[in-house]
Amino acid sequence: MSRNTHLAYQLLRTPHSLYNTDAMFSRLWNHSDDTNSDDTSDACDAEDARDARDDNEREDPNDAEKEDLHRLQQIISVFQKLMVSAAGVVDIAVDAYNSYTQAHYDKEPYHTSALSGIAWVNELLAGHPERVRCELGVHRHVFIVLLNVLRESSIDDSKNVMLEEQLAIFLYACVTGLSVCHLGEQFQRSNDTISKYVLP
Fold first, then answer.
1. Is the pTM of this model over 0.90?
2. Residue 16 and residue 10: Cα distance in Å, rounded?
3. Which three-class secondary structure string do you get for the chain?
4. 21-57 and 3-13 helices cross at what angle (nearest 10)?
5. Structural domain boundaries of the chain?
6. Residues 180, 171: contact at Cβ < 8 Å?
7. From 19's CA, which of 34, 85, 143, 158 has a CA 20 to 30 Å away?
């Protein structure tokens, strides 16, 4: 039973002497106004919600396009930054490769003296006898004897180094005690070549 029906039922059952009629009808009227006010408020709220939903549905399509365009621009910007970083890495790799190839394939000659090792030995042998003894530790005739002994022992010229120069490298290392690097500078030979005739 609703509140209005309940109040009307009480009004009919209650003697007139026990209640104030005006007060009873005032209560009924006020309750009816409150109910109508609540209904009106609920209807307004529902209408506002429906209007808001309709506004969202009628949203300008240009706004969606602008948002998509902004996102696309952000993606393009990130991609451009990645491309710049990749290009930097490629440049570094190319520089490293060029440095490596230049060091290993485009070698600059190290020994460029006009006087080669064998030319220096021939100069010693053709010069003052004491000069040979000073530089190699033996007189010229001793040097020649040593050459003959080596040849009799089946030791001869190598592909790139004559036997005279081989013997001179060994004797010069014994007299001076220089390192392989310094011997290579004196005879204009690589360290590997010098090592063959100095180290046992």
1. no
2. 11
3. CCHHHHHHHHHHHCCHHHCCHHHHHHHHHHHHHHHHHHHHHHHHHHHHHHHHHHHHHCCCHHHHHHHHHHHHHHHHHHHHHHHHHHHHHHHHHHHHHHHHHHHHCCCCCCCCCCCCHHHHHHHHHHCCHHHHHHHHCCCHHHHHHHHHHHHHCCCCCCCCCCHHHHHHHHHHHHHHCCCHHHHHHHHCCCHHHHHHHHCC
4. 170
5. 3-55, 117-198
6. no
7. 34
